[in-house]
C-alpha cells in the first residue's frame, strides 16, 4: 500500500502540475474559451489510463499460470524502464517543463480546438499510462487488490489537493526537493519491481535458479510481521530470495542511485514562450545599427 500511495502521489502530482500549467496559461492569456478543450483532453487521458489498467488486470487473470507469470514479468520489466526514464526526465526537465508546456499550448491554440484537445490528452496520458503500468507491476503478489487500489487513489487525491492549493497560491511546495526524495524512493521501488519480475521469469521457467537461494532470513524477518509486510510491499525485500533476484536488485539499484545522486548541470536559459496574442502581433523592429 505504501508503494502504491507513493506512485499515486508522484505521478498524480506530475499530472496535476501539467493541468494547472495549462489552465493558468489560458486564464492569464484570456483564452478561457479553450478551457473546455483542455478538460476534454484530460478526461480522455484519464479514461484511457483506467482502461489500460483494466486491460492489464483482465489479461493477467485469463492466462494459464506460466503465461500469467511471464506476462507479469514482462510488465514489471517494462514498468522499470518507464519509471527509470520518468525519474531522470523529470529531474532534467523540472525547471523547463512550464515554459515548454505553455509554448506547446500556444501553438495548439493557433492550430485550433482539436489540437488543444490532443495536446492536453498527450500531456496527461503519459502520466496516466505510467501510473497504471507501475501500479499493476507494484501489486503483483499482493493478497488483495483493495488495499493497494485505495492507496493509489489516496495518493492521487492527495496530489490533486496539493496541486489545487498551489494553484490558488495558498501554499508553496519546494518541487525540486519533492521530486528528489520521491525519485529516490521510486528507484528503490523500481528495484523491487525488477526483483519481482525476475522471480516471475523464474516461475515461468524462462530463467533458472528459482530454488537457488541467496539468503534465508525467515527466522529473523517473520513473514507475518508488519515490518516484513512494509519492506515487501515497498521495496520487495522478502525473507528469502534467489541469487538472480538479488543480482538483479543490486545491478539496478546501485548504478541508478549513483547516477541519480550525481550533481546536475545548470539548465540553459530559456526564452519566454509566445502567447497567442503576441504570436499575432507585428514582428519586432530591426535592431538599430551600432553607433546610431
From TrEMBL:
Keyword Repeat: no
Transmembrane stretches, start-end: 6-27, 34-58, 70-88, 108-125, 145-166, 178-198, 241-262
Membrane topology recorded in Swiss-Prot or TrEMBL: Multi-pass membrane protein
UniProt keyword annotations, A-Z: Membrane, Transmembrane, Transmembrane helix
Annotated localization: Membrane
Domain of life where this protein originates: Bacteria
Spans annotated as Disordered: 266-292
GO cellular component terms listed in the entry, alphabetical order: high-affinity iron permease complex
Main location class: membrane
GO molecular function annotations of the record: ferrous iron transmembrane transporter activity
Entry-linked InterPro entries: FTR1/Fip1/EfeU (IPR004923)
Stretches with biased composition (Low complexity): 271-282
Pfam families recorded: FTR1
Protein name listed in UniProt: Iron transporter
Amino acid at each position: 500500500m505504501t508503494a502504491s500511495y507513493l506512485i499515486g502521489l508522484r505521478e498524480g502530482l506530475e499530472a496535476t502540475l501539467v493541468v494547472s500549467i495549462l489552465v493558468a496559461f489560458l486564464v492569464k492569456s484570456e483564452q478561457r474559451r479553450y478551457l473546455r478543450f483542455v478538460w476534454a483532453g484530460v478526461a480522455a487521458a484519464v479514461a484511457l489510463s483506467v482502461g489500460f489498467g483494466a486491460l492489464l488486470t483482465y489479461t493477467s487473470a485469463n492466462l494459464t499460470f506460466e503465461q500469467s507469470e511471464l506476462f507479469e514479468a514482462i510488465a514489471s520489466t517494462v514498468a522499470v524502464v518507464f519509471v527509470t526514464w520518468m525519474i531522470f526526465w523529470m529531474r532534467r526537465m523540472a525547471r523547463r517543463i512550464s515554459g515548454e508546456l505553455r509554448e506547446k499550448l500556444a501553438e495548439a491554440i493557433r492550430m485550433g480546438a482539436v489540437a488543444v484537445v490532443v495536446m492536453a490528452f498527450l500531456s496527461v496520458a503519459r502520466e496516466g499510462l505510467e501510473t497504471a503500468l507501475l501500479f499493476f507491476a507494484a501489486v503483483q503478489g499482493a493478497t488483495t487488490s483493495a488495499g493497494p487500489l485505495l492507496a493509489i487513489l489516496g495518493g492521487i487525491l492527495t496530489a490533486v489537493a496539493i496541486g489545487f492549493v498551489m494553484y490558488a497560491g495558498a501554499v508553496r511546495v519546494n518541487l525540486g526537493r519533492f521530486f528528489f526524495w520521491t525519485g529516490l524512493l521510486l528507484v528503490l521501488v523500481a528495484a523491487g519491481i525488477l526483483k519481482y519480475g525476475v522471480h516471475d521469469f523464474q516461475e515461468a521457467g524462462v530463467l533458472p535458479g528459482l530454488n537457488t537461494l541467496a539468503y534465508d532470513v525467515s527466522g529473523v524477518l517473520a513473514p507475518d510481521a508488519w515490518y516484513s509486510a512494509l519492506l515487501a510491499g515497498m521495496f520487495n525485500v522478502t525473507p528469502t530470495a534467489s541469487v538472480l533476484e538479488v543480482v538483479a536488485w543490486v545491478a539496478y539499484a546501485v548504478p541508478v542511485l549513483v547516477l541519480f545522486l550525481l550533481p546536475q548541470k545548470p539548465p540553459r536559459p530559456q526564452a519566454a514562450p509566445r502567447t497567442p496574442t503576441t504570436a499575432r502581433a507585428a514582428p519586432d523592429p530591426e535592431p538599430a545599427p551600432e553607433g546610431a
